[in-house]
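# step 3/5: fold
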Amino acid sequence: MDISDLITPSTIVPSLKATSKKQALQELARHGAAVTGASEREIFEVLLERERLGTTGVGGGVAIPHGKLPGLNRLYGVFARLEQSIDFDSIDEQPVDLIFLLLAPETAGADHLKALARVSRQLRDKEMCEKLRGSDTAEALYALLTEAPASHAA
């Protein structure tokens, strides 16, 4: 599974305005609803429920909120670069400024986990995160997120 299977330039938010974790999740739910056709409220509630189980702030300024929704026919992603870092209850207690929302069908077992692992691996790369923080257009962010890792280059 490639990141390009999850996002398009239109699912990238280069400058998300949010001052709290809740507000960021609300904004992401709004963007997720526009892409999936699912209800914004339903997405938001799924994300809040997942956060109650444990934070999706994975460290290094990155969060990967995710959830499963009935009615989806495939995995969807929304990537956002926040205008200002926010507290996201991250495992390293550092503020978050890069968020990758992942929405999956209720029936997605292994595919959901593979997508989470792929996104996590990509956003654990400090150099990649610095490049993302230095880019301010959806097209530039998309290009960075979907470029093949150097170790897989021909």
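# step 4/5: annotate
The domain at 3-146 is CATH 3.40.930.10 (Mannitol-specific EII; Chain A).
# step 5/5: archive (pending)
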